[in-house]
């Protein structure tokens, strides 16, 4: 079973994203694409998309979960897309504040503003920066525990803030200790995080926490292999592509902040297709007894609409700069649907980390497990494993581990039966990833 992004998706991306990912392969290619989409979601002011009666800005919460030294550090390339915008906002607001302070009007001086917010920050500061920001913020951290530390502070329930900000709901805070009062209407915040499974749990706390269902997940636990170092020219070419797009996005951001609010609309046919695809996944989840996961499926529909908005903008940067209105084209809707269908299966995999980390199957295990009948014999598992060039000894190890962790039951010597809950989860993971 393939849990990487399909080649067809890459072939149909807007040209700007094709250039960013063309020289990469495998997981690194996927990580760069998703982190770039997450970064860009924070810099499209005054643009929204209508989805099921509500209007949403582009902001996305993304979490990349993988073992240490597995290539997820490539996500930091996406920061280059934000660099000039962040520096310009910081410089301009700092200059205005310095002028004000030099005139001794300290109480009335404007605050210093940011685009990129550090993860290691207090909850009160998050409110303040959201209040001070004109067009939203992003927290971009390659180590998720930078944010987890702030979430664990007794006096700041930042999880509640994130749940509301995902929907752009009003947030407010009032604290008498430091005479603090903020009300932020339509807050906009993007999150791009990466970490290990151990760093995930302190951040999300529980799969029943509403914060879980608001994230887009990309999860893998592959074996790591030594990778030859890239040449300097390859690295410079890759960085150069990000800086070129960063320059275009800097100009686009400057144009959009001066424009009136615009809402992109999906056609009736496009919305019907989305309803059909997401509804089909929703019904498969319910039929399999996995009702607990339906909130994630529904919110992936919202995220899907945001990805459509981002793809539409990237496909039409030149037209937007000329003041032309843009329309959502079918290719971007289809691409977003296929991407979300895969990432729902990733979210389903992450969900079970909270229940029993030992029950998560590796990709090799999933290859075997997904083709086994509900009741099967050892020789059948070995025959399936041989198709994927997995040895008999390794297959026996998998079988013993599955028995130990209640993934399967040993009925008699050489005969096994899948446990119903794990069967439903893995079967759905396979179906969703394959569709």
Automatic annotation (TrEMBL):
Q: Which InterPro entries match?
A: DUF3987 (IPR025048)
Return the Pfam families for the record.
DUF3987 (PF13148)
The domain of life is Bacteria
Name recorded for this polypeptide: DUF3987 domain-containing protein
Which species is this record about? Leeuwenhoekiella parthenopeia
């Amino acid at each position: 079973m393939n849990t990487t992004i399909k080649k067809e998706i890459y072939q149909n991306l807007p040209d700007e994203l094709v250039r960013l990912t063309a020289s990469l392969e495998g997981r690194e290619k996927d990580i760069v694409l998703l982190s770039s989409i997450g970064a860009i979601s924070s810099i499209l002011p005054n643009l929204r998309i209508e989805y099921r009666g509500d209007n949403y800005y582009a902001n996305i919460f993304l979490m990349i979960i993988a073992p240490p030294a597995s290539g997820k550090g490539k996500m930091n390339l996406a920061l280059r897309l934000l660099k000039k915008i962040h520096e310009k906002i910081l410089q301009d607001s700092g200059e205005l504040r310095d002028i004000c302070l030099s005139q001794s009007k300290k109480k009335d001086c404007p605050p210093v503003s940011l685009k990129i917010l550090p993860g290691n920050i207090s909850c009160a500061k998050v409110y303040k920066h959201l209040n001070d920001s004109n067009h939203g913020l992003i927290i971009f951290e390659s180590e998720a525990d930078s944010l987890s530390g702030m979430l664990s502070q007794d006096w700041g329930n930042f999880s509640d803030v994130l749940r509301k900000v995902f929907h752009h709901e009003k947030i407010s805070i009032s604290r008498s200790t430091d005479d603090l009062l903020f009300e932020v209407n339509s807050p906009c915040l993007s999150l791009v995080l990466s970490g290990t499974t151990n760093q995930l749990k302190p951040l999300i706390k529980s799969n029943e926490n509403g914060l879980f269902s608001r994230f887009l997940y990309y999860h893998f636990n592959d074996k790591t292999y030594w990778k030859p170092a890239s040449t300097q020219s390859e690295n410079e070419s890759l960085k150069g592509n990000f800086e070129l797009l960063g320059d275009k996005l800097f100009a686009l951001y400057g144009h959009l902040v001066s424009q009136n609010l615009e809402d992109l609309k999906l056609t009736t046919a496009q919305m019907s297709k989305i309803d059909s695809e997401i509804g089909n996944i929703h019904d498969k989840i319910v039929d399999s007894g996995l009702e607990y996961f339906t909130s994630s499926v529904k919110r992936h529909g919202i995220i899907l609409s945001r990805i459509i908005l981002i793809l539409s903008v990237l496909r039409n940067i030149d037209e937007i700069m000329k003041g032309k209105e843009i329309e959502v084209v079918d290719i971007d809707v289809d691409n977003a649907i296929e991407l979300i269908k895969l990432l729902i299966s990733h979210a389903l995999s992450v969900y079970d980390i909270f229940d029993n980390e030992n029950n998560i199957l590796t990709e090799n295990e999933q290859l075997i497990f997904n083709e086994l009948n509900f009741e099967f014999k050892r020789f059948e598992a070995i025959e399936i494993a041989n198709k994927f060039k997995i040895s008999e000894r390794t297959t026996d190890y998998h079988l013993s581990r599955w028995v130990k962790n209640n993934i399967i039951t040993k009925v008699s010597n050489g005969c096994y039966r899948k446990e119903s809950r794990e069967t439903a989860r893995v079967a759905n993971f396979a179906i969703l990833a394959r569709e």
